[in-house]
What we know:
Blueprint: H1 2-17, E1 23-31, H2 38-48, E2 58-64, E3 66-70, E4 75-79, E5 84-85, E6 92-93, E7 95-98, E8 102-109
Parallel strand pairs: 1-2
Antiparallel strand pairs: 1-8, 3-4, 3-7, 5-6
Amino acid sequence: MSIALNIINIAGREAQEHGAAEIRSINIEIGALAGVEISALEFCYRVARKGTAADRAELVIDEIQALGFCRHCEKEFPIDFFVSICPDCGEAVNEIRKGRELRVRSIQIV
Ligand SMILES: [Zn+2]
């Protein structure tokens, strides 16, 4: 629930700064390894937006593919877990370059 509230607060502040009364949509990015369950977030969002400037705003979610980096091969590749194996050399990879983000990318205001 706190994630949904944060998103709405961020979008609400942004709308206020632009003098908008209503938010039409909120576009967010969620990394595959951000630890966010999207269906749960969507549910919380629909509850949390009630009575706010985002009351009728659509939540548009972009899922970001996680990327790992192998220091041995100096290559990036898509991963699904925190602990992965480099597809080229088979070494354990522990550097995560992408996939933990959770941010409001843009909002559409009326
Ligand atoms: Zn490698």
